[in-house]
Amino acid sequence: MQRATGSTEQAIYRATTAAAARGGSGPRHALERGTITYTRNPHHHHHHYYNQDRPAPAATMSVPLRAMTVAALAGCGLLIVVYRVRSTKYLAQVFVMVWSAQLLAWLLWTTLVYPHYTSPLRRIPTAPGAHWVFGHGPKILAANPGASLREWITTVPHNGLIRYFFFFNRERVIVTSPKALAEVLVTKNYLFPKPDAVRTSLGRVLGYGILLAEGDEHKVQRKNLLPAFHFRHVKSLYPTFWRKARELLDAMEVAVRAGDDDDDGAVLEVNSWASRCTLDIIGVAGMGVDFGAIQDENNPLASTYINLSTPTRQAKVLMVLGMVLPGWLITHLPIKRNDDINAAAQRIRGVCRDLVVEKRRRLASKEPLDPDIISVALESGLFTDEQLVDQLMTFLAAGHDTTASALTWALYMMTRHPEMQQRLRDEVRAALPSPSADADSDISSADIDRLPYLNAFCSEVLRVFSPVPQTIREAACDTTIQGQFIPRGTRIMLSPWGTNVEPGLWGKDAAEFKPERWLSGGGGGSVGGGGDGSGASSIGGGGAESNYAFMTFLHGPRSCIGAAFARAELACLLAACAGRFEYELADEAMADERNIKLKAAVTARPAYGMPLRTRVVEGW
């Protein structure tokens, strides 16, 4: 056996793939044949690490199209050879009949028999109310993203695992307890990659950057991108965040005064403002370019992302089909939704490619480069231009959409709790300089750190309204979670929206929006701000029983690399917005969160915007 150079989990992950390709079923077969070796991938250097062998798709319950087709063809071949049948029409009928019979048998087995009578997961506590064919699928689609999982985590008695059924009774397992989460995210992290179908779907818009990379590929990318997110670099970005916040305030104030005919303020759709501002920030701080989205509500790049996240019936249909059909087939279906996604992806890719070309030119001419994402990646020498484009696509989408979501919910909760809004405004105005255009009012990280209630409020927003409500993994091989056998191909669900408010971890007031929990022994909102991008937090942050109670940035090797960046950006933007304006709900029906429909997207954002009546508060 060769000298070990990677973790045991990575070795098993690679060995499982090799065993499956040879006809084995998992690591057990690989071990029996002595095929597990701990070797460094020969392509794992310079520009080639992207080309390492990708893992074979896990044995999920997708329709076995190839096997069914081969069997039907074999039946036709038997008729030709043995019975000398020559009628093309008859053979075609036989093919269709055999193929259809197999499909029916497969559906009956996988939908009605396997999940209820033979599945090794059947003894896991199961969410109630499943349809006999469609499982909990209709309930999940009818509810907001992540809402059903939050409900089950807080109401179904369990010991860290909960089972539910997606469409056609496809089993999924929600992981909830700290020990189970630690297994999936840390100790066995490489055994639970994102499903290929998810990577294929998201990769068109997000690019195949660090968010969708797996195994050694992810490890190398993270190591080489981490300097751009080091806490010292993030601290240097506070003046940039504040300057963009000032620009946002000025533009919003113009809009408010233009629409304020009766001194009662104007209704602004703050989600749009937040999205355009965070897009500008990731451009300036992450890529060295200002997209100018704050000043242009019809900004082409911002509009592209808005159109992509607009909920459509076809998007929901594609999501359901993705449960039974391979990802490559879903993305090639001749429907308008796919055409729209492909066109948007080309526009975004074009913008990112232009940025890479310009940075290459500056690097070649020996011009000094700022320590932003693209510059750090370029200077590492480990990325080709197209790989850099993928990274920029990832950070453009993930870097602005998530923080915009958090800021939107922060402003919403200020309207729900006027006393908190006033307390925030008082603290900000007492400690920070006026952001008026004629004042030299740049701030530092120390200025924000001295605002305990602001940081506590941000932490509570990130807890209760995690920008990404849920994420999915897939068992790459037969394994276990807390002693429960998990078959290869099982979909594993992580639910920040559920875990972040679980009473067993946060106490009886877990569902309450209560910033004060971060002021009494909780570290003043330090959760998720591990300056190295680890997303780590101190145990008991916010009074929780475990650091795994706060799942907004995940944990372990796959935790959010931009956690410190996002927290700093949110704090600066919220401080500015709370200090300058007063907010009220434009529609009182939205006071009940259940009346706010969310987009069927990766991030939790209102489907129809967040209209708030906004007034300028003079004196700052």
TrEMBL record:
Tagged with keyword Heme: yes
Binding-site list for heme: C560
Keywords: Heme, Iron, Membrane, Metal-binding, Transmembrane, Transmembrane helix
Protein known as: Cytochrome P450 78A3
GO molecular function, one term: oxidoreductase activity, acting on paired donors, with incorporation or reduction of molecular oxygen
Cofactor(s) of this protein: heme
TM annotation in the entry: 63-83, 90-109
